[in-house]
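Sequence in, structure out. Go.
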Amino acid sequence: ACTSPKDEALHKIKKIEDSDSTLNNPALLEELTAMYVDFIAKYPKDPNTCDFTFKAAESYHMLSKFDDAIGIYDVFAKNYSKDKRAEHALIMKAFVQENGLQQFAKARSDYEEFLKKYPNGELADDARAALNLIGKSDEDIIKFLKEKEASGDSTM
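Output:
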């Protein structure tokens, strides 16, 4: 039986996703990420595209391809704003700016954008904490946390 190119792509993606070694094999993860990106480009209206977009961003992050991860997290947050993972995508964009690229001004702006959009979201406290600690050395962070603890302040 003939299968469509789309069904063939889905089958190949599923086969690699089901492989136990994907996360431990950068070459395989790279191949899977390329397959996600190719599928997204070819089939933007397919129901799998939302999921593959999020997975592509995570994969790029794991591969330390931070600019690509940020770009795809941004696309996900914009194109799939109703998806429950949109909040996560937006904070991850800021996180990768801060920790992956050390671009603190952009990260600060992204965390602030996140808080405007999700002021009471489940990750809002994480964003506030990140804003307080952004760009600080490990020693400064420890000092800050000890001072907060000593003062009895449980908020960031």
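Check: The radius of gyration is 19 Å. The chain has a mean pLDDT of 91.
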